[in-house]
Each structure stands twice: as C-alpha cells, then as structure tokens.
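hey m, so remember when u said the tokens were messed up on ur end? i reran from scratch. heres the input so u can diff it against urs
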Amino acid sequence: MNILDTLVGAILAILTTIVTESLRKPSLKMQIYKAGDANYTDRPAKKARFLYLELINRPLPKVFRWLSRNAALQCHGTITFHHLDGTNVFGRPMQIRWTNLPEPTPAILVIGEKRYPFFDPRKFEHFSRVDVHSGESEIFNVASRFDDDDDCFGWSNESYYVEPIWRNQNWKLPKGRYLVHVSIISAGEKCQSLFRLINDVGLNDFRIEKALPSDRIQN
C-alpha cells in the first residue's frame, strides 16, 4: 500500500508540474488595432494613415492568478503580403517594426563642417525586439498610406532609410486587396495570424480586416 501511495503521489506531482509549467508559458494572440491618422506640416507627407496590429500576452485565468505567467521575451517577427489567391506579392518577408520603440532615424557622421547621415546596423537591429509581459501588449506597424496616393507601403524600420523617405518602393502595394500573414517568435513560442489589407478605398477607409475562413496563402 505504501508503494502504491508513493507511486500515486509521484504521478500527481509530475502532472502538477506539467500543468503549472503549461500555464506559466506565454499565451500569445494577435488582433487588429485602431488605425492612426496624422496631419503634418514638416514631414514627408501632409496626411497619413498608419495601420497596426496588436500582440497580446493573455493573462492567466482568475483562478490561477496566484501563479505568474512568463513574459514573452525577445519577440520578433515577419510580415508577408499576398494576393487574394494566396501568392506572395514580394517573395520575401518584411521585418516587424514595434511601434512604441524609438524611430531608428539615421545616425549622423560629422566631418569638418559637413554632416552625413549613415545607416547604423546595430541601431537597426536593436529596434526590432520587445518583451511582452503577462496581461500586456505591444503594437506593431503593418502598412501606411499618404496624401492622395492610391498605393500603400509596408512599414518597417527600412521606411526611415529609403528615398523617397517613408514611401518604401521595395514594399509598395498598388490599389487593391491583399492578405497579410504575420509570424512572431518568442523564446521558442510561435504565434501566427492572417488578416486582410483593404487598399481599394479612400484614405479614411484604408484598413485591416479579419481574414475570411476560406483565405489561404502559398509559401
């Protein structure tokens, strides 16, 4: 009987550990975040609309709040843009830019009385990863559109280094509708979601929508 009790106790202890560790793991989900509208007088556009998604690390259910869910560490990811038939528009992924991190503006090299902007890859890499704690979230950019343009542009850290600035021709999406696939990795965890990008409307209606159940992408 003692041996049986010991065995049952050991099994229960193992199961408790497994359940506890499972609960403590980050639980990530993505959702649409409200668009950002802006008017400028001294920027590369007079009018702009920025589209965002939100990464959330769900809190534990109330009954388990005595535990602490782990933070999702060093979150980084990519976005791919697809036609509605699933084919990849660019054939490559765009690195995510986390909105709340500082703008990775070019560094300035001063030689004599002249100033030269230059690309600093260390700064570029620094602004691509975030930690998301339990019950908290981080916003990231998807695309932007300016003034009376019909085209929109994928928005990433590259947008600050291109010419014309902001309107990154490497990520230009003509008027139309697209699928947006997002993949985010954090310390072994992976979160993926699919959305629709609506760019066949006026600037004020430029938006992200939920993907349809039938939407599929091709790698």
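this time it looks ok to me. The first strand starts at residue 28 and ends at 39. if urs says something different then somethings off w ur setup not the seq
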